[in-house]
Amino acid sequence: MMKAYWCPYTLRFRFEARTSRQSMLVKDTWLVRILDEHSGREGVGECAMFRGLSAEDSPKFEDSLAEACRSFDPDNLPLESSIRFGFETAIRNLSGTPVNDFTRGASSIPINGLIWMGDKATMKQRIDEKIAAGFKVLKLKIGGINFDDELDLLRYIRDMYPPDILELRLDANGSFSPGTAKEKLETLSSLGIHSIEQPIQAGQPEQMARICSESPIPIVLDEELIGTRTLEESRELLEQIRPQYIILKPALCGGFSGADRWIREARRLGIGYWFTSALESNIGLEAIALHIASRGCELPQGLGTGQLYHNNFDGPLYLQGERMYYNPAKKLIIPDLEWRQ
Q1: Do residues 337 and 9 make contact, with C-beta atoms less than 8 angstroms apart?
Q2: 109-326 is a CATH 3.20.20.120 domain
């Protein structure tokens, strides 16, 4: 018989993490532990609900998680994306770490260097640090400061490195309006931008479809994928909007099963994809890395978030420049926690 337990955990940022939506000093998350009473084996996962963003964000989230643990059935997992993600991870961890080139330490995953929002001087410093660390792909969050200042930062990068040397990805977090998006995208296109995530807010499929068809920069869907959808709903959304890429955050888009459903439909339509973290702890981050490694990774992934927190869990993942590696000699260290049922 298997039993499930849960507990809350608060991650503390090393700096004020800013997007166009919010500023954060802490990130609440929840852990789930599944115990096989017969064998004594256990697996831990992360139910990484993102306040203000996850579809299941509500005052009753912890009640839903507690009920999911009390009625745990591995063959009938909850629909809530973050809870499903946590259970899928814990169930997989019951079986131990999969053996492949990544977990043997023989291969690595390429990642982008994430530039968080800040004032102009701070962002410039962060850009210099990532370039000095050897990153060939930078992702900048924009929409939080004056657009002209953001253009200056992008020109600063391009004056040193052309597009064939350094790839620039942008994340607008829905900060453009439908009326101004085309003009801003045309201005940005002169800077050799690889792609831009979610230029306008999610939930405007007609406007987003128009932008995808007209934009001189490839468009990436991110927040548009939040929530649990059926195969038919996923197919209809991608067929209507026709983005050039999609970004997969399993904790937000239906767990790993939901992410794989999006991948199948994206491949059918010739849409590219990559995975990114939704600011999980190293528990969730390791789960995503293992999922990517089992499926191959052609494009740089958005997984460089493990060093964001003072109190993250120590584990086998580590970074060297623009590559993520797995140390098979280390295991995730989970401290003593007050588990609930």
Answers
A1: yes
A2: yes
